[in-house]
Design a protein that fits this description.
Layout: E1 4-5, E2 16-24, E3 34-42, H1 47-56, H2 65-72, E4 74-81, H3 86-92, E5 115-117
Antiparallel strand pairs: 1-4, 2-3, 2-4, 3-5
Length: 130
């Protein structure tokens, strides 16, 4: 079972993939208010800790699609997967609805989106309850 991190300080500085849990309290850019999961990767300097620390920080420059969501909403935290890719994670979550096709996956030829809606009451494959 992967570890869930509400803050970046305990996340390993390793390369890998992650699932970021985001709450939008109000609608934004075609997305209704609700819970969302963003699957991403961190292969650069600082690995998962650096990337997720950025996602969890407010007031950053908008650089990636997900930055718009993390600035408008709030990040619950993230599950980290040092030995997987974001596409592996999207495949594991394939039963979840795709709210915006192509979101965060413009360089991916496999996934319909790297952003998934996370309806209340729906458990994730690696947890026992939502």
């Amino acid at each position: 079972m992967p570890d869930f991190h509400a803050a970046a300080d305990a996340i390993p500085a390793l390369p890998g993939a992650y699932v970021l849990a985001i709450i939008l309290d109000a609608p934004m850019a075609g997305l209704p208010a609700g819970r969302y999961l963003y699957c991403g990767s961190a292969r650069g300097p600082g690995g998962l800790r650096a990337r997720l620390g950025r996602h969890m920080r407010k007031g950053k420059a908008v650089r990636w699609h997900v930055d718009r969501l993390t600035e408008a909403g709030w990040v619950l935290g993230a599950w980290v997967f040092p030995d997987q890719s974001e596409c592996d994670l999207v495949a594991q979550l394939a039963r979840l609805p795709v709210p915006l096709p192509g979101f965060g996956s413009s360089d991916c030829r496999v996934c319909p989106s790297h952003l998934l809606a996370w309806p209340a009451g729906v458990a994730l494959p690696w947890e026992d309850k939502p």
